[in-house]
Design brief:
transport; alpha+beta; molybdenum; 2 domains; Rossmann fold; ABC_transporter-like_ATP-bd; translocase; cell membrane; five-stranded antiparallel beta sheet; OB fold (Dihydrolipoamide Acetyltransferase, E2P)
């Protein structure tokens, strides 16, 4: 189910103007702190009333200033996941989950508790009280409670911000399952390039209250003029298939015949994976590299070179696995004679790909996200 947002909100000196339509999938509102992400998602939720505009999910209008439509939050059929879990401390996990079902429309059957418990791995937690849950466990219960309200759109306002890295890695796969298995549209606020790369079907970039770009994760993260979190967030996204686990702690992937080694991935053989590769982790060579410790070498042809304002340059190498971006110095570009059409090799250490940069993907080819 798609949704459309066209609204204006003024809060003090801050002005938000957002106009975009997103297809089914997981849409990330991506931007720095203060860009308007939370203001926008709260306007969709009905917690903030826009000064003007229209909000529509499928064919159902939630807000239309011209037609004097402004549904209250309880009638918008939305699930909301906050930064903190906000569980009822006097209720068990099971009762917190069942509370969500109270908000499911009477004429619309909500998701079965057993389905959500299984999806989020909550079986062993049902009789615990929130005080005895970890941060990641609490957030999984919060996600389950939101899903059991049978929402038409799931809202998530930086749901991983309050968690440490270990707990973030615990939660990310559940959002992938919601995206891929439940087919529920999600509007997800983030300022993390890793979350964008792993989760986003569509990315809406916000800056100073304005939508500056709308596109795929690969498009946004490959363009330093667009990515809002700095040049070190620039990189490539490729889809690969998991083909083997090795005894030395590495997993072997293949993408269009290209072999890749990454730290062991906790996924079954045959799984389709989505990898984010940071441009600053890539080394380029114009001759076949030998005698290196790096295990990943991708051959290709340079398709573009973009010089930065400082000493750096962003080189795009077209490979069988998809475009690979490398951030190098302009001095290296000159010394190696790099220019479009030149054959080159992208060299990448296996350990340069962190666990948070490897996620599940729908069964798609590299061309689908490049």
């Amino acid at each position: 189910m798609s949704f459309e947002i066209d609204l204006s909100v003024r809060q003090g000196a801050f002005q938000l103007h957002a106009n975009f339509a997103a297809p089914n999938g997981l849409t990330v509102l991506f931007g720095r702190s203060g860009s308007g992400k939370s203001t926008l998602i709260n306007a969709v939720a009905g917690l903030i009333r826009p000064d003007h505009g229209r909000i529509k999910i499928g064919e159902r209008v939630l807000f239309d200033s011209d037609r004097k439509i402004a549904l209250p939050p309880r009638k918008r059929r939305l699930g909301y996941i906050f930064q903190d879990a906000r569980l009822f401390p006097h209720m068990s996990v099971q009762k917190n989950l069942l509370y969500g079902q109270r908000f499911a429309p009477k004429l619309r059957k909500g998701r079965e508790v057993e389905q959500i418990v299984d999806l989020l791995g909550l079986e062993k937690l049902l009789h615990r009280m929130p005080a005895y849950l970890s941060g990641g466990e609490k957030q999984r219960v919060s996600i389950g409670r939101a899903l059991l309200a049978a929402p038409e759109l799931l809202l998530a306002d930086e749901p991983l911000t309050a968690l440490d890295q270990t707990r973030k890695l615990e939660i990310l796969p559940y959002f992938e399952r919601i995206r891929d298995e439940l087919k529920l549209p999600v509007l997800y606020v983030s300022h993390s390039a890793a979350e964008v790369a792993r989760l986003a079907t569509t990315v809406v970039v916000l800056d100073s209250g304005q939508v500056t770009h709308l596109g795929s994760a690969a498009e946004v993260l490959s363009d330093p003029r667009v990515v809002p979190t700095g040049v070190r967030s620039v990189g490539s996204i490729i889809v690969a298939k998991l083909v083997s686990h090795h005894a030395d702690g590495l997993s072997e992937l293949q993408s269009n015949g290209i072999q890749l080694f990454v730290p062991k991935v906790n996924k079954p053989i045959g799984a389709s994976l989505r990898l984010r590769i940071s441009a600053h982790e890539i080394i380029l060579s114009v001759t076949p590299p030998v005698g290196l410790s790096a295990l990943n070498v991708l051959s290709g042809t340079i398709s573009a070179i973009r010089a930065g304002d400082g000493p750096g340059a962003l080189v795009t190498l077209a490979t069988a696995a998809g475009p690979i971006l490398a951030r190098v110095t302009q001095r290296s570009v000159s010394a190696l004679g790099l220019q479009p059409g030149v054959e080159a090799y992208a060299i990448m250490k296996s350990v340069a790909i962190a666990q948070q940069d490897i996620g599940g993907a729908q069964q798609r080819t590299p061309d689908d996200i490049s």
